[in-house]
């Protein structure tokens, strides 16, 4: 669709996001001419407003293909309006594609639980999801499981779907095994700029003694959204650091952790960074023995349908990783010595998975 054609990729995300960079590389390789329009504003709502202003000065009808990405729901009508501003003949020749990275309804109502399912805004979110799914010439998703979700929940006809998996920038790792300072946001799917209360309860499942040594470095990074199940990560790290002697490094958000988990995160046993510059993040990954990928939340359906973006970066570094046993993860990863699958929602499974790497067993798989 994009080969030797003029293509515009317009995304409600920042320029250094893993998906934005991925499309940039594809367009550079295949398109005859292309532009990437993104925004550096703080959240999807302000970014969508910024994008709307930017495309006012762009003749979208000049392009053969226009791809709206990340949250196309927030800019779809504006793109349609820009395309229909000129002759209908030219408008009919422009192919409009949606890169549906997430569902507004699913994220705000089912995942974040910020709105009631019966509320007016929830209904509007669902309406926007349906609009894009049924209007686009092609809907791109990052997993087959997500494609099934969009088809079952929003598709009213025979929509065309294609799965395009995420891909980390291969130039992140140079020939000497060092770090190239290329931009690549270290987060999974970002929330819609709305805040929720902390997760209730303690997900700890007891203590485990193992023969892992202090030299073993366990790493996790992420934004800390509910679907990631970061509470299970912190509880596992507490056990691994205090009782197994592991060096545990946690990088990222903590807003959905309990007070007890936040205290553990800031103890002497876990190295905690709320944020690291990307070059420093990649150095931490390069020095890790085992990386926790997830998703680990057991009761959020989106956890089962999405592959954590961090897993693609871990894969680039050929790291041993612990993955949630999800439909999405099984689409591209197979259980082996570098890819250990664990039951979601289980601290014990994460701890035993680390033990299995050093003890030769498969208790956590």
Compact summary:
With 365 residues, this protein is α/β, with parallel strands linked by helices. Helix content is 37%, strand content 16%. The chain is globular, with a radius of gyration of 21 Å.
List the helices and strands and how they pair.
Layout lengths: L5 E6 L6 H13 L2 E5 L6 H11 L10 E6 L5 H8 L4 H6 L1 E6 L3 H8 L8 H16 L2 E4 L2 H11 L6 E3 L53 E6 L7 H13 L4 E6 L6 H7 L4 E4 L4 H9 L3 E5 L6 H5 L3 H8 L3 E5 L2 H6 L6 E4 L4 H13 L6
Parallel strand pairs: 1-2, 1-3, 3-4, 4-5, 5-6, 7-8, 7-10, 8-9, 10-11, 11-12
Explain how this protein is built.
The protein is an alpha/beta fold and 365 residues long. The protein has two domains: 6-164, Rossmann fold (3-Layer(aba) Sandwich); 174-359, Glycogen Phosphorylase B (Rossmann fold). It is built from 14 helices and twelve strands. The strands form two sheets. Strands 2-1-3-4-5-6 form a six-stranded parallel beta sheet. A six-stranded parallel beta sheet has the order 9-8-7-10-11-12, with helices on both faces. α9 (259-265) links the parallel β8 (247-252) and β9 (270-273). α6 (120-135) packs across α7 and α8 packs across α14. It is globular, with a radius of gyration of 21 Å. The two termini are 40 Å apart.
